[in-house]
Design brief:
alpha+beta
């Protein structure tokens, strides 16, 4: 991800004020901003001619561009970045909005359901594409593993992570152990492998199966076979990406022509570039905002991405956020994404505490 690093003093006060007003007017209208409309609506004590000079300077510095010779100007990716980093005033969420978010997040219990709710809620509240990303489970740190027979040859394995994440997996087995033996297996695995990442759990179980001791201890071998099979069934699910509200893109004038529509829907079919960005964002603290050329995915499709990590820094659960055109209400959407991410983190923490009690 390439970020254009700029400091506040790169622009003088008057240029900053003009850039802020152009970004805000353009986000609101979608129309290039002329010096005349800026003078009329911006509240500047400057003539259109003076404003034209300031806008020309901003264009020379790469903050604005002029789509057509006779048209007004629009912000560039560099202009949006300066606005986001130095000029944006974030809107505070109302208590009603917070209550709605908290209530919706509280409805779900299992990880997949929680994240699906988050992507749907983000889409509804932002009128953009809502996303929720669950990365690979290889690094999920196990708190417990329990087995329950649910059919003649079916066993339900419930893996609980130390961060409250719950993963369920059905295993089919020819000769399933009885209830008491399943309880002993659950207790042994939970005690022996507590606090280890699933990929390490699987590796150690397979090593034990190859050990001389397992050849003479039928119970140990049976336990390791069942446990390693359960973990192996879980780990192939590399990641899940929920996208909600993709059709909202059709309402945006930036994507109204047929070619832009085709490219946009292609973007949501070919998800690997987006997954790659989200995986990298998992290692970053706080709210992440990527504009246009700052990543391959956003550059290719003229998108911006606002996302945040949920879970904890030591055990991140995933990412939630919104995707939309570069012309989006960053000041409204940034606090929305941030609050939903924190609400999810609280939910996960509470679920983890309930599971520990």
């Amino acid at each position: 991800m390439a970020r254009d690093l700029m400091n506040f003093d790169e622009l003088e006060t008057r240029s900053r004020d003009v850039l802020r007003e152009i970004v805000m007017q353009y986000v609101a209208t979608g129309e290039p901003i002329s010096s005349r409309s800026l003078a009329r609506r911006g509240g500047f004590e400057l003539s259109p001619a003076s404003l034209r000079n300031v806008m020309a300077d901003l264009e020379d510095l790469g903050y604005l561009s002029q789509p057509h010779t006779s048209a007004g100007r629009v912000p560039t990716d560099r202009g949006y970045r300066f606005f986001i980093d130095h000029l944006m005033k974030s809107r505070r969420l109302s208590q009603h909005e917070k209550d709605v978010i908290d209530e919706r997040v509280s409805r779900a219990d299992e990880l997949d359901e929680v994240m699906h709710h988050a992507s749907s809620l983000l889409s509804q509240l932002s009128n953009q594409v809502g996303l929720a990303f669950i990365p690979t489970l290889h690094h999920l740190v196990m708190r417990s593993m329990d087995f329950v027979q649910v059919g003649e040859r079916k066993i339900l394995c419930v893996i609980v992570g130390t961060n409250g994440v719950i993963v369920n997996q059905i295993i089919e087995i020819q000769d399933p152990p009885g209830r008491e033996e399943l309880l002993r297996i659950s207790s042994f695995i939970s005690g022996e492998f507590h606090g280890l990442a699933l990929e390490i759990v699987r590796e150690r179980m397979l090593n034990i199966l190859e050990d001389e001791r397992a050849r003479h201890d039928t119970m140990l071998a049976r336990t390791m076979r069942l446990g390693s099979e359960a973990v192996s069934e879980v780990l192939p699910h590399e990641r899940e990406l929920h996208l909600e509200g993709a059709t909202s893109i059709l309402d945006k004038p930036e994507f109204a022509d047929a070619e832009s529509m085709r490219k946009t829907f292609l973007a949501f079919e070919e998800k690997e570039k987006l997954v790659d960005i989200l995986n990298r964002c998992l290692n970053e603290d706080g709210l992440q905002i990527l504009v246009g050329a700052e990543s391959q995915f956003t550059r290719n499709y003229n998108f911006s991405l606002i996302a945040t990590r949920c879970g904890s820094a030591s055990s991140p659960l995933g990412m939630v956020g919104v995707i939309g055109p570069t012309r989006m209400e960053y000041g409204r959407l940034a606090p929305l994404v941030d609050y939903i991410g924190k609400a999810l983190s609280r939910k996960i923490e509470e679920s983890g505490a309930d599971n520990r009690d």
